[in-house]
Amino acid sequence: MDLYFTTLNWNETSFPIAATDTGLCYVGALNEPRDLFSDWARKQLPRADLIEDPRIMQPYQEQLVEYLNGTRTHFSLPLHLIGTPFQLEVWNALCQIPYGVTATYSDIAERIYRPSATRAVGTAISKNRVLIVVPCHRIIGKKGDLTGYWGGLNMKRKLLEIERVSSSKLPFH
User: Fold this and answer.
1) What pLDDT score does 34 carry?
2) Are the beta carbons of 107 and 173 closer than 8 angstroms?
3) Exposed, middle or buried, 114 (CB in 10 Å: 0-12/13-18/19+)?
4) The pTM is what?
5) Of these residues, 136, 140, 160, 165, which one is catalytic?
6) Active site residue 136
């Protein structure tokens, strides 16, 4: 299997993105060091050949830049999510949260018919490595506070600002 990657540059930030022939499998944090991506790739796809190829990654870059510029509210790219069945279930539920809307960990637990699995949902969300596209930035605390985010709270805040999320937005159900 080949794993194609490039660095997406946007404004004064950059982050790694990667895809297999099946679809996008990695969107890193803003200004993430390349070795974090390399470590993830070696662990998750140990037999993959890493190939830096901006041309193959161009469609992914275009949609991500459109989102970051505030002109795209929905992604239409193929995904290759790498995780356990439970993680995939949680990440698919995240993909159902509409643009500009937030949800809580317990909302996701209820959405996947496991209302007592809030902590497990949080752990699964923390393992998401397709940031932005699998919108874990839309998850907030029960009281409306910003909670942990693999890309850092500054990135989370920036993404929510792009979507113009305010505390008056209704959570998704």
Assistant:
1) 85
2) yes
3) middle
4) 0.92
5) 136
6) yes
